[in-house]
Amino acid sequence: MPQIPQDIFMDGIKELIQLDKGWVPNGEGKSLYIRPFMIADEASLGVKASNSYKFIVITSPTSNYYAGAISVKIEDDFSRAASGGIGAAKAAANYAASLYPAQNAQKQGYNQLIWTDASEHKYIEESGTMNIMFMVNGKLITPSVVSDTILKGVTRDSIIQLARKWNIEVEERKIPVAELIDALHKGEVEEAFGMGTAATIVPIHTIGHKNEKYTLTDASNWTFSNRAKEYLEGLKRGHIEDEFNWIEKV
Ligand SMILES: *Cc1c(COP(=O)(O)O)cnc(C)c1O
Questions:
Q1: What is the CA radius of gyration of the chain?
Q2: pTM score over 0.85
Q3: Cβ atoms of 38 and 54 closer than 8 Å
Q4: Atom 7 of ligand 1 has which residue's CA nearest to it?
Q5: How far is Cα 134 from Cα 26, in angstroms, rounded to an integer?
Q6: Which of the residues 115, 172, 247, 248 could staple to 242 if both were Cys, CB 3.0 to 4.6 A apart?
């Protein structure tokens, strides 16, 4: 697929926002979701890379992706992405394999899954379509994106930068499921949350593993994730000075 030059990408988005600005909703947690994407549009049947693509941007008014804290199940059977595959890319194809196991989890009363590595199901990777972090004994722990099975989300990266600015120790590394379960048993998991552009930060109140369910404390009292969420929301609404240069004014 061709790379879209940055100016075409940004000018296209800005032009569309001018056209669609009447659709920007008011209110907390509400926004105009902007979704750029590229699809093959060559008129041919056959399995091969296309010679022709279309770059498209669409928008939609949205409100909170998840209404409150969610419950998730650690998946130890199905996989979202395997090493050597395309899990690190924001490719629509990645969602295909995730839908059936997510639906199964929903039938069991969960909102979403925690994905584990496809070869052994021993390490934590992501939660649903979000990156994932845990606050354990005052340390922020998140799966390393050195793995080609984890998407390098911009929200994840922003939260790590915020944590460092606030002098919170951050560990990007492999997180064994066994280590998380042990910390849950000991009551050391202070916060658990998913993150992505659409969802911002979503607290996790329950983690299911095998036949056990672990419940965390009331997420409204979590210091780090609430602070990071307020910061990101404040920044987007222009209430906080943009010291990282993350904001593009339109
Ligand atoms: C979109 C997405 C994320 C979050 O990425 P952001 O850049 O923060 O929006 C994380 N994991 C998966 C699988 C995703 O599709």
A1: 19
A2: yes
A3: yes
A4: 153
A5: 31
A6: 247
Structural tokens at position 115: 């994905």
- Among 24-38, 80-94, 186-200, the range scoring the smallest mean pLDDT is 24-38
Q: What is the residue whose two structure tokens read 């404040």?
A: 234
The residue contributing the CA closest to ligand 1 atom 6 is 153
Q: How close is the Cα of 189 to the center of ligand 1, in Å?
A: 23
The strand pair at 212-215 and 70-74 is best described as unpaired
Ligand 1 binding residues, C-beta < 6 A: 90, 126, 129-131, 151, 153-156, 196-197
By DSSP bridging, strand 112-116 and strand 70-74 are parallel
Residue 207, classified by CB atoms within 10 Å of its CB into exposed (0-12), middle (13-18) or buried (19+), is buried
Q: What does the angle CA 182 – CA 183 – CA 184 come to, to the nearest 5 degrees? A: 90
Ligand 1: nearest atom to the Cα of 197: 9
Q: What is the pLDDT of residues 97-116, one digit of tens each?
A: 999 999 999 999 999 999 99
pLDDT digits (tens, 9 = 90+) for 134-184: 999 999 999 999 999 999 999 999 999 999 999 999 999 999 999 999 999
C-alpha–C-alpha distance, residues 98 and 80, integer Å: 5
Query: Which residue's alpha carbon is at the smallest distance from atom 13 of ligand 1?
Result: 129
What is the CA(193)–ligand 1 centre distance, in A? 13
Using the mean position of ligand 1's atoms as its centre, give its distance from the Cα of residue 135 in Å: 20
- Asked if residues 73 and 110 have their Cβ atoms less than 8 Å apart, the reply is yes
For atom 3 of ligand 1, which residue has the closest CA? 130
- Evaluate whether 193 touches 203 at the Cβ level (below 8 Å): yes
